[in-house]
Amino acid sequence: MKLVVRILLVLLAVLAVLLVLAAVRALLLKAEPARAPRQPSRTPAELEQLGQDFARMIQVETLSRNSGEDLSQFQRLHAVMKELFPLCAQQLEQIDLGDALLYHWQGRDASKLPILLMGHQDVVPVNPQGWRVPPFGGEIHEGSIYGRGTSDDKCAIFCEMRAVENLLKQGFVPPCDVWLAYSINEETSGHGAPHAVQWFREHGIERFAMTWDEGGAIVENVMPGVDRPFAMVGIAEKGYVNVKITARGAGGHSSAPPRQTTVTRLAAFMTEFNRKQPLERKMIPEVRQMLENLATCCGFGMRLVLGNLWLFQPLLLKVLPGAVPQAGALLGTTCAFTMMHGSEAPNVIPGEAYVIANLRTGFTQDAAASVAVLKQYAAKYDLDCEVPEAREATPISHTDSAVFRYLKQCIAERYPDCGVTPYLTTGGTDARSYADMTDACIRWYPFRLSGKELGAMHADNESIRLTSLSDGADFYQYFLEHYVPED
Ligand SMILES: [Zn+2]
Which residue from 16, 40, 204, 240 has the least number of CB within 10 angstroms? Predict the structure, then answer.
């Protein structure tokens, strides 16, 4: 008995020491107090004008298209861009590949690696019932401009071109070549970006100092407890796999059903898979870094946990996916069951039924390994798996590069009230096509977005604040104006 008490006391003492260590570390971790945001650079009237100009791009219904289809909306958009940015139209070389539009701005030194700014002209469809304003109206209400494409992703094209236009007006010549690339089918994973990559290669452009696309933003309220907005700079993106899981068996009349049918087998499989969550969860160094960066700007409780991953990592791996799904998605492959199909009539048991599992593969368990886990569970229920679509996660860009450091400096200069952290993009972007052409494949745009604005992407009432748009345009301009290429 005495021995048990002693062991308990020792364990309690160890626990107390660990907690004291964690608490001390948490106290030491605090970031410098946030600085004040910059003063607005535009008057209310100038902001309104900026919004009116941007509205013209929103008013063109550029739903995703492939080359060979009717591209008249994209031609309309190009005409609008020509009017909005006349100097770009006159002074930059334009290459219209059909499914991507490229601009080439010649720099002072063609021997330096060029940089590439990206965006996509296409938008996803709308469900007009859910909108309070016309989805392609570009209406301005209470300081925000509304419409499909305002935050995904015409804001990037508008502000990049506006930055270039302003610099051309000043007679500025960039130190290296600058390219702009705008595809017309990012939203449908079309050929725009791969086609542009192919064109660059055919024209002897194999490497960029950086490629800069959407995929992260300046996120307000990124996690409960984080006391400032954070520039979440995407440095890689997860893979994308669809698996079709099919049950085959005796179909027939539903009036005398057997205990198990194709549908109940699928349901049992999904229930077990979902309950056990058998896909690997790991915290790769980049995610660790992100959580530690966020921790420095949290209250004590969150700092205690996120700032002491040496102690709390196993706990976080367990609870994070349930508590904050967005953060949980960074810990490995996720699996969502999305589409199901059974019989064609309510009184028919299907002889064949299927469900689609959409996997977003992580960085430690690739597509084949993730699918293998799914197959193992499917086999228990005598289900067949096919993989109609699979692409792997991209390589991860290093954050110790000169480009990344420069980007961080620019963020500190233009957004002094914000934190910066690398992060992994969970959705797909055009950037993945360029992943092996650069060491700095950046997926982040310089716009402040609230949780509500983020939630409206691909949903109803998509919008962006005019102040965000204005700061974003200034950011691109500042970045280009002060960029010094590496030797
Ligand atoms: Zn987008």
Answer: 204
